[in-house]
Amino acid sequence: MIKQLSVFVENQPGSMMNVTSALVDAHINIRAISTFDTPEFGIMRLVVDKPKEAKEYLTKEGFVVRITDVIGAELKDEKGNLNQMLTILAEGKINVNYIYSFVIRAGKAPVMVFHTDDFERAEEVLKAANVQIVKEDELE
């Protein structure tokens, strides 16, 4: 499992920069980011190097922050690999709520980060299909 921060921000200029600035001040490295917005607010989903410390610092700075588990699946940068992983999950009756990727791991394959309601089953299905699951401590 990988810990993900969800930070709620107002939908106005500079709100995301305020989050990233706070993380810079706290010496937190952002490894992956995905955003979602509505007319009034946005959600920043972040994978960082120190999730607990990041949550504490951002909360102290007045942000609303949640930590959730997500799964990281290592996929080679080859045509069709994402589709193959999603097929494995669909055939295993695993719903994917959202997905995003990151590739900042020097010399290693990209990681697809996704959220599901059934983490245990998702990991079991992926491992059975020889998909490499990435753990929090393997992100360095």
TrEMBL record:
Q: Which is one Pfam family of this protein?
A: ACT_8
Q: Which Gene3D superfamilies match?
A: VC0802-like
Q: Which domain of life is it from?
A: Bacteria
Q: Which residues form the ACT domain?
A: 4-72
PANTHER family linked to this entry:
ACETOLACTATE SYNTHASE, SMALL SUBUNIT
User: What protein is this chain from?
Assistant: Amino acid-binding protein
